[in-house]
Amino acid sequence: MKTKIVFSEKCLNYGGWHIEGPQRVKMAHEFLEEQKYEFLEPTPAAEEDVLRVHDADYVWKLKKGLVEDPDTPAYENIYEYARLSAGGALLAAEVNGFSLMRPPGHHAGHGGAALGVSTRGFCYVNNVAVAVKALGKAALILDVDGHHGNGSQEIFLGDERVVYVSLHRFPHYPGTGGFSEGNCLNFPLPADCGERRYLEALDEALGMVNVGRFEVVAVSAGFDTHLGDLASLGLTENSYREVGRRIGLLRKPTFFVLEGGYMGEQNGRDIDQLLKGYEEKAVV
Ligand code: Q9C
Ligand code: ZN
Known about the structure:
By secondary structure, the protein is of the alpha/beta class.
C-alpha cells in the first residue's frame, strides 16, 4: 500500500511574500513526485460542507474578502482557495490519503478566530473539521502541528462522537491548549523538547483514548515541530517516522490533512517519513 497524495497546482496560485506561501507546498510536492507517490486532484468543497463547520455570517465575510487580520491576509478569491483546500481534505477522507493543500485550517473556528484568540493563524476554513463533519463518523482527531488547533477545539468541544488530541509547543501562538477539557486532550510541550519527550507524550495521549470506539482517525498533519521551524519541538525526519508508526498501530482507516510546516522540501521529507512509518504498521 502506498498512500495517495491529494494535490492541485491551483493552491500555488496565490500569496507570495508571506511565510505561509506557495513554496512550502510546491517544494514538498516536487520531493514527493520524485518519490513516486500517486497524486489525485481534488474538487472544491460545497458551501453546505463549509456550513457544517462555520457560521453563515463568517462564510459571507470570507466570500466578500472581509477576513484580514495581522497574521492572515485577505487574498483575492480566498474563499475559492479555501474551498479547494477543504475539498482536498474531503477527498483524502474518501481515499485514506494525504491532502497536500493550502491554506491550512486548524486555527479557524465557527466564526473565524477561535477561543478568544485575535487572529486566525493563516487559516480560513477548518479543512479537517469539514472532512470529519461530512463523514459523520466517530472520529479521533490527532493534531501534530506544533501550534494548538484552537479552531478544531472550538468546533469539536463537547461533540460526543469526536475526541481531539493535540501535542503542541506551549506557551506559544495561539496561547490556548494549556490544559485538557472534556473531549479535547491537550499536551503542551516546551520549546525544542526533543523526540524522546515528544513520543512519550504521544504514547501517553494515545494510551488515554479508547481507540476501539472510533471509525476513523483524522490527522492534522503539521510539520512546524521540525527543528528550526516556527513551533520547533526539535523533531527530525526520524521523529515523523515514529509518529507514523504509532498512527499505523491504531489500525483504523486514517487520513491526513496538511496544516503548518514552513521549510519547503523538508515538509516533503517529513511527509514521506510519516507515511512510510504509517504504512509499515497499518493493516487496514
Ligand atoms: N503575530 C499554522 O501553523 N504566528 N499557523 C503569529 C504573532 C502565527 C501558524 C505571531 C502562527 C500561525 C497553520
Ligand atoms: Zn502550526
